[in-house]
Design brief:
The protein is of the alpha/beta class and about 200 residues long. It has a single domain (about 1-195), classed as ABC-type transport auxiliary lipoprotein component (Rossmann fold, 3-Layer(aba) Sandwich), CATH 3.40.50. The protein contains three helices and eight strands, in the order H-E-E-E-E-H-E-E-E-E-H. It has helices spanning about 1-20, 85-100, 170-195, and strands at about 25-30, 45-50, 65, 75-80, 105, 120-130, 135-145, 155-160. The chain has a five-stranded mixed sheet, with helices on one face. A three-stranded mixed sheet has the order 1-4-3, with helices on one face. Helix 2 (about 85-100) packs across helix 3. The N and C termini lie far apart (about 90 Å).
């Protein structure tokens, strides 16, 4: 009886293994500083520390969460972030601010040793929408603590950038540009308050 079942078990195992190998491969993405950003003025002698970023629980996962018509969302199992989204956003904003402020002294770590005054930035992402083939939307509240001042600077940026194509890499690039808009508003607030 067991000899009669052996070919059947082997055939089922081969079909199962064949099915596993034909599943789609995952694609991994990361955000990066917006390459189109340029310095907004003369480089200022300052340090900037970008504190940890908060994001909605809905998108705090490895999968890119696609926003669909109505109220539907779908985590895309095979379209994933290469690293935790919070840290990736934090480093992207730091890179954007370095370009916009014309300084190398922008970091995500507290230890800064240049001797310049330190500005601290916090960003709370209220909305991080990804609509494949259409647009990326970021709604961010941000707070800046100038050195030696008790009163923080509070601001808000709502940025929507079109996706240039249907592919997910175009959607991620749209998020890069939207984060660039958030960073541009933060940099403008820092520069405005530097002159005071």
């Amino acid at each position: 009886m067991t000899r009669a079942l052996a070919p059947l078990v082997i055939a089922l195992l081969a079909m199962w293994l064949g099915g596993c190998s034909s599943s789609p491969a995952s694609s991994f993405y990361r955000l990066k500083p917006d390459a189109t950003l340029t310095t907004m003025g003369a480089a200022a002698p300052l340090n900037v520390v970008v504190n940890p970023v908060t994001i909605p629980a809905l998108v705090d996962r490895p999968q890119i969460v696609a926003s669909l018509p109505g109220n539907e969302v779908r985590p895309e199992e095979f379209q994933r972030w290469a690293e935790p989204l919070k840290g990736n956003i934090q480093r992207t904003i730091a890179g954007d601010l370095a370009a916009l402020l014309g300084t190398e002294h922008v970091t995500v770590y507290e230890a800064v040793s240049s001797g310049f005054p330190t500005w601290r930035v916090r960003v709370d992402i209220m909305q991080f929408d990804s609509v494949p083939g259409k647009a990326a939307t970021i709604d961010a509240q941000w707070t800046i603590w100038p050195p030696g001042k008790a009163t923080p600077i509070v601001g808000h940026t709502l940025a929507q950038e079109p996706a240039q194509a249907q592919a997910y890499d175009a959607l991620v690039a749209a998020h890069d540009r939207a984060l660039g808009s958030v960073s541009r508003d933060i940099a403008a607030a820092i520069l405005k308050n530097l002159s005071r």
